[in-house]
Amino acid sequence: MVRFGGVPMPEETVEDPTLQHNFKGHKGVVHACAFKPNLKQLVTASEDHSLMIWSPGVPNARAYKFSGHTDAVTAVAYSSDGTTIASGSRDRSIRMWTPSIVGLYEPKALKSAHGGCIRSVSFSRDGTLLVSAADDKTVKIWGAPEGKFLHTLSGHINWVRCAEFNHDNGLIVSASDDKTARLWDVRGQRCAFIYDDFKAPVRCAKFHPDGAAIATAGDDRTIQVWDIRSQKLVQHYHAAHGDRVNSLSFHPSGDFLLSTSDDGTVKVWDLREGQLFYTLNGHDGPSTCAEFSPDGSFFASGGADQSVMVWKTNFDAVLKKHAGATDVKLPAPFTAEAPILKDDPRAAPVMSTERAMEGLKAGSTPPLKENKNKEPVKTPVKKPAAAGGDGAIPEALAQTLGHIVGQLDVLTKSIGLIEERLSANEDRVKDLVGIAEKKSSSARIAK
Where is this region: Disordered (predicted)? Predict the structure, then answer.
């Protein structure tokens, strides 16, 4: 375990994350994990075709193993009320399980839910919707818990690795092997924006808890955080891992980001400071998944070593420091009705989908501090969402128009220089022709 990338902190009083449990039971790679909202159970999905439910808070508790899929289980999620578990598999099916005190009732199977391996399943915050992503290049939306098919979102041109809703179900973010991440307008059933500044497949994309940003990572070993109001890169962690990044998970406060990688490490990033917070070396081989608990007090990780680890975060001291800091601007609530838990440093303000779509307005406070490792990235010029009815031009649109005007000015100057050079070349050609004619005339006279 390494604190701040190995740099000791003066008068350090922060406790290290501590390993609480190291569960063994799966017979294959652990692909995904999810906490039950009440924190009493943890569900994991594995290459061994099974789900397992663990009870971290109960000493020596027996784990329950459930089978039903006919191939590797690659995705799993708990509904917000804890009444339903959704799983996705390489057998192309989605199953809705109902936990009970005696195990899981016979699941509702959505056979052939996709045309390829299902890589991701995720419930909406209110538990009424489920989004899935698969190797058939699509993102699909289902009613929950009945599993009724609702919509297909098409646009990716390669496998879609993950997809999830924002807090009010208005947006979905997806990541794909086609080297893009996309924001989808759920109500309009269309792609709202494409992030295409990636040089390698994007394996994961997650919404920041306040809804104002997304984090992305993938095969290029880097982690990026984007402000979705301006579509600009806010933080860039170059060479965040020594191998491809497999998963991301935000702490409920929005101050920390958890990442896993084929390099075998689990890393915690301090987004307020824009730097590495912890490196955890627990798994023997690639770490494949990790998730914070709903209250942020624990996180779980899974790996190719078939083990499931549960860690206590011990972030309270740092969260209190962040909450009381005078040199760090905390994001103000984005809506008057933002559900903030008073006196709880783990609570994050929430931004509505409408606000996210209208673009960053002048005077808005960026949700995160820009990190020093940020590298300049070309932001794609795309049509921004329409602004509200106040007649004001959004800053994002104004910046785009200003950029276009500037480029046109450069183009005009370039054309002017080309015309001047052409004129100069024409004059030179005329001079050379005149000299040649004189020499030819002199030669004829000499004869």
Answer: 361-389
